[in-house]
Design a protein that fits this description.
Blueprint: H1 5-9, E1 13-18, E2 23-28, E3 35-36, E4 41-42, E5 45-49, E6 57-65, H2 74-89, E7 95-100, E8 113-121, H3 124-131, H4 135-140, E9 151-157
Antiparallel strand pairs: 1-2, 2-5, 3-4, 6-8, 6-9, 7-8
C-alpha cells in the first residue's frame, strides 16, 4: 500500500485539487502569505506536483573519503565491481553510476571523496532484498580496488 499524503508531504496538506489531466497537492503558505505587489492580492496557496508513488526512487550512495595513504583503482571499480553489483542485484537495481573526485570547493583544494558510487532502486526494501543475499561477495570485492572504508547513505530521490 502507498504512503498517505501526510506521510509523503507532512501535516501541511490543505486539500487536493483534481484538474483535467493532473493531480496537484496544495500546501498552505506561511502564516503571512506573500502579497502580489502589482495587484495587492494575497496568495495563500502554493501548488506542488504530486509525484506518483511508483516514481519515487531511492539512491544508495557509496562514498570513499580521501585521506593519508588512500588508494583507489577507478578502472577496476567502473569496469568490474560496479557492473558485478548491478548483475548480482538484478533488475531491482535500476541504474549505476560512479564519480571520480577531482577537486574540493575551494580553489586548489583536494576532493573530499576519492570516488562516489551510486545505485538506484524503487525502494529501500527492494535494495535490501536484492543486495542482502550477495552482500558477502560484493563487500568481499572491496579490497580488489581500494583500502578505503566506504561510507554508505541511502536517500530518497526528491528531484
Amino acid at each position: 500500500m502507498g504512503k498517505s499524503l501526510t506521510e509523503r508531504f507532512g501535516n501541511d496538506i490543505s486539500f487536493v485539487y483534481i484538474g483535467q489531466q493532473e493531480l496537484q497537492i496544495y500546501r498552505l503558505a506561511t502564516a503571512r502569505p506573500p502579497v502580489d505587489l502589482a495587484s495587492g492580492e494575497r496568495h495563500t496557496l502554493q501548488p506542488i506536483p504530486l509525484i506518483p508513488e511508483e516514481s519515487l526512487m531511492i539512491r544508495v550512495s557509496v562514498l570513499y573519503p580521501d585521506g593519508p595513504g588512500a588508494k583507489f583503482d577507478m578502472k577496476y571499480y567502473t569496469t568490474s565491481h560496479m557492473p558485478m553489483v548491478k548483475s548480482k542485484c538484478g533488475p531491482a537495481c535500476k541504474s549505476i553510476s560512479a564519480e571520480k573526485g577531482v577537486a574540493g570547493g575551494d580553489p586548489g583544494s583536494k576532493a573530499t571523496y576519492v570516488a562516489i558510487g551510486y545505485l538506484t532502486f524503487d525502494s529501500v526494501d527492494a535494495f535490501q532484498k536484492a543486495f542482502g543475499p550477495h552482500a558477502g561477495e560484493i563487500l568481499g570485492d572491496i579490497p580488489n580496488y581500494t583500502n578505503i572504508k566506504p561510507i554508505v547513505q541511502v536517500s530518497e530521490v526528491t528531484l
